[in-house]
Amino acid sequence: KAGVTQTPRYLIKTRGQQVTLSCSPISGHRSVSWYQQTPGQGLQFLFEYFSETQRNKGNFPGRFSGRQFSNSRSEMNVSTLELGDSALYLCASSLLNDGHQETQYFGPGTRLLVL
Amino acid sequence: AQTVTQSQPEMSVQEAETVTLSCTYDTSESDYYLFWYKQPPSRQMILVIRQEAYKQQNATENRFSVNFQKAAKSFSLKISDSQLGDAAMYFCAYRSAYQAGTALIFGKGTTLSVSS
């Protein structure tokens, strides 16, 4: 079974621009979560989607948004990019079992550099 | 709020030796999951092992095993017969079992180097 895929893998943007990152979960997985990884803050949770609904959101400004499509693919968008948004963005997918999220499996990440 | 602490920023081990990575967590919940993830230089986050809090038996996966001490809120990872491919950053993570869609809460990570 194919793993979680993320596109693009690398991205360079300038301050003020916006960016859209894509994540395709493992086939059959309906929950998608996004995380930001930086050297200073470590791994921080952005949001989680299930059945096209955002169920949980981390402590990030409104410039960070996401959505999920009917095929469970997810996108996240960052508007008005700031230098501090430079990070590795990780997507993770999981099954649901009895209403609980199962183990999260991660994609390879998208490395975003904001200049 | 739950927190996860990894007190060892860096560890080193010789090939074929055993190493233990430490993790402590703080929570008021009784039902949760704990994980160890490995992140090699490729940055791909790979699941190493998972433990359900309601299970007293420690999880094992081949050369990887955990020592789960619920009362002490401790969750250490033991790597036996270390291999060069084990070199990576290791993250301990917590997830509540009470609510769907909850986030993984990660520690800061431990960088493990393996020498031949």
Task: Give an account of the 3D structure.
- The complex is a heterodimer of chains A (115) and B (116).
- With 115 residues, chain A is mainly β.
- In chain A, 0% of the residues lie in helices and 56% in strands.
- Chain A is built from no helices and 13 strands.
- Chain A has strands at 5-7, 10-13, 19-24, 31-38, 42-50, 53-57, 64-68, 74-78, 87-94, 96-97, 100-101, 105-106, 110-114.
- In chain A, the strands form 3 sheets. In chain A, strands 2, 4, 5, 6, 9, 12 and 13 form a 7-stranded mixed beta sheet that branches.
- Chain B is mainly β and 116 residues long.
- In chain B, 0% of the residues lie in helices and 52% in strands.
- Chain B contains no helices and 12 strands.
- In chain B, strands 2, 5, 6, 10, 11 and 12 form a 6-stranded mixed beta sheet that branches. A 4-stranded antiparallel beta sheet of chain B has the order 3-9-8-7, with no helix packed on it. Chain B has a two-stranded antiparallel sheet with strand order 1-4.
- The radius of gyration of chain B is 14 Å and the shape is globular.
- The model of chain B has no long low-confidence stretch (mean pLDDT 94).
- At the A-B interface, strand 4, strand 5, strand 9, strand 11 and strand 12 of A face strand 5, strand 6 and strand 11 of B.
